[in-house]
Design a protein that fits this description.
Length: 332
């Protein structure tokens, strides 16, 4: 664009790299000279538009250079720009800076295409290792705009979104695959907001943050993906916390119980066998505890007791009995 404009490099011994950069459309010298060129032409009124389009061209060229440097992929500029245009034309989730309810700056994902029908926007996490857990819990913090507060909004506006997961043994999702729409996701729930906001307050005073916790299982593969589907809401996803529950290691009834994962269902009870502490032995039945779905120990069965010649000391410790002090008579 505007190839007839040439820069005048008056700086002595300027590095070749800088000179080459400045003689291209992405150089600042080109921009400065374009402004001077169109400003001195009294009869020309189109120079602001010309400068604006050259700025767009400069940004696109720099984006192409950065893309190749960051990815190592060699791609024709025209192909890169076509792909970029297709991405920009699609409605999707956007990562933006925002504020939480305490006015802390955070990075969020948001979507608000309420004026366009038939929305189907997906947000996918990276692969998450389940680390041996059979049941996974997900805490979702989000905000939703009240549809009735948006002027002239169509009836397709929603105040809910869908939450899915996909279990797999390997990392399979990339931008170049069709995984986004074709994977056999399992739906966890349709998430609705307990509170929605009707005004946009940039100070965050009117932000109403919702927190919902959902769980799914049983899981048996190495890991999973989480997916969030928007189909017409105006919302922000503030944070997603993924966790599992477990019963901590404990010493009880003179026995040691190892850290134990909770079961596949929230009502499951997982049996944990105990090991008697040193210098102790089981009494009657094998000792065990049950780990419930909330990560709490319950229903102790059996116990251990100190072996002969030992006594309990300081709770769950068996120590050798101390000999009684001898009694010596001064009259005997």
């Amino acid at each position: 664009m505007h190839s007839m404009i040439q820069t005048q490099d008056t700086t002595k011994k300027k590095p070749n790299t800088i000179t080459l950069y400045n003689t291209t459309k992405c150089g600042v010298d080109v921009m400065d000279q374009m402004v001077r060129e169109y400003t001195v032409r009294a009869g020309t009124r189109c120079w602001p538009v010309a400068v604006f389009y050259n700025m767009i061209d400069m940004a696109a060229l720099n984006a192409h250079v950065l893309y190749q440097l960051c990815t190592g992929r060699q791609e024709r500029r025209v192909d890169f720009l076509l792909e970029l245009a297709r991405e920009l034309a699609q409605t999707h989730w956007e990562e933006v800076s925002s504020y939480d309810e305490n006015l802390n700056t955070i990075r969020t994902y948001q979507v608000c295409n309420v004026f366009e029908p038939s929305q189907n926007n997906w947000l996918l996490t990276t692969f998450i290792d389940r680390r041996g857990a059979q049941r996974i819990y997900v805490e979702i913090r989000f905000t939703v705009r009240d549809c009735s507060s948006i002027p002239n909004v169509p009836g397709s506006c929603k105040e809910t979104f869908n939450f899915y997961y996909y279990e797999t043994d390997a990392v399979i999702a990339t931008k170049s695959t069709a995984f986004w729409m074709e994977a056999p996701y399992l739906k966890v729930d349709t998430i609705a907001a307990d509170e929605s906001f009707s005004q946009v307050d940039f100070d965050g005073r009117l932000m109403k943050v919702n927190t919902e916790v959902r769980s799914f299982g049983p899981l048996s593969k190495n890991g999973f993906y989480l997916a969030f589907q928007d189909y017409g809401a105006c919302m922000s996803l503030l944070s997603v916390r993924v966790f599992y529950k477990k019963c901590p290691s404990v010493v009880q009834n003179f026995a040691i119980f190892p850290e134990t994962m909770t079961g596949a269902e929230s009502t499951s009870l997982v049996i944990a066998r105990g090991i008697c502490i040193p210098n102790s032995e089981e009494v009657d039945v094998p000792i065990k505890l049950y780990c419930n779905g909330d990560g709490e120990w319950m229903v102790p069965i059996g116990s251990c007791t100190c072996k002969a010649g030992f006594e309990h000391d300081n709770g769950n410790v068996c120590r050798g009995k101390r000999p009684k002090p001898s009694q010596t008579s001064f009259f005997g």
